[in-house]
């Protein structure tokens, strides 16, 4: 049972947002040296802020396609608030970010559509909570939406349970945590000035050269955060995942998102006729 099912319009909007996101994340590796965008590398992330209305359009399209009801909105609000509250607990210290495991588990139970919306909304709420609003915020919203949506696309959602499911989600969470940090590095790589030539972005250089510099940049700057985030996500999924999965599935069954509303006429019984007996 899914809180939000992806209909044709929401799939199209999500595909459009994801395609633009891939371009926005990956343009430094492919932009030619004589391209106008390479002369404005420091301004490029601000252009990506235009993606925020498209992210909101995904939510609107999903509501239009599936009729997101009050129960689904309430669950979205509760989980987004929980995710936003979990993020500052580690404040990014050494990669301790416990919100990732909740996004993975929620996406698994509630499906890719709900997962994408939840990841984006949670990151937006946490940015407001921590004061982390800036040109990087739409990147974070999209990347976290991908993380949670990917969990909803994993196989065996209807049959796989128990330890095997926990291991699957722990492995996915570990990989997704590192992938999140890697794609976010692409967002900030072009803004870093004065770095060593072996790790800095060189506009217009061949793909292989810039890719080698980017790998070196990730290894020297963010791997110390990405790996602990991966380990924390995996450990929390293995230790708390089973109980949280059961709670989410129980809440989903009770909410009965897909059950149609039925109304029955209430008939008031008539009073029995008075007896003629003395």
UniProtKB/TrEMBL annotation:
Pfam families: ECF_trnsprt. InterPro entries: ECF_substrate-spec_UCP037395, ECF_trnsprt_substrate-spec. The chain crosses the membrane at residues 12-32, 44-64, 109-130, 136-154, 166-183, 231-248. Keywords: Membrane, Transmembrane, Transmembrane helix. This is ECF transporter S component.
């Amino acid at each position: 049972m899914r809180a939000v099912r992806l209909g044709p319009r929401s799939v199209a909007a999500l595909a459009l947002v994801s395609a633009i996101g891939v371009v926005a994340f990956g343009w430094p590796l492919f932009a030619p040296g004589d391209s106008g965008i390479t002369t404005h590398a420091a301004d490029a992330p601000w252009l990506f802020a235009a993606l925020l209305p498209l992210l909101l359009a995904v939510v609107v399209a999903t509501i239009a396609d599936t009729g997101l009801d009050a129960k689904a909105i309430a669950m979205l609000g509760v989980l987004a608030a929980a995710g936003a509250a979990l993020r500052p607990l580690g404040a990014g210290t050494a990669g301790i970010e416990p919100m990732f495991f909740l996004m993975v588990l929620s996406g698994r139970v509630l499906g890719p559509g709900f997962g994408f919306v939840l990841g984006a909304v949670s990151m937006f709420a946490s940015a407001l909570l921590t004061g982390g609003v800036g040109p990087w915020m739409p990147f974070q919203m999209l990347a976290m939406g991908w993380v949670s949506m990917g969990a909803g696309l994993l196989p065996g959602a209807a049959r796989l349970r128990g330890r095997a499911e926990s291991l699957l989600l722990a492995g996915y969470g570990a990989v997704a945590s590192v992938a999140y940090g890697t794609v976010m590095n692409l967002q900030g790589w072009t803004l870093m000035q004065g770095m060593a030539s072996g790790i800095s972005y060189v506009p217009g250089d061949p793909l292989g050269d810039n890719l080698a510099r980017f790998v070196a940049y990730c290894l020297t700057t963010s791997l110390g955060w990405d790996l602990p985030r991966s380990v924390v996500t995996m450990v929390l999924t293995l230790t708390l995942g089973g109980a949280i999965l059961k709670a989410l599935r129980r809440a989903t069954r009770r909410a009965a998102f897909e059950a149609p509303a039925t109304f029955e006429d209430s008939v008031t019984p008539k009073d029995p006729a008075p007896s003629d007996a003395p």
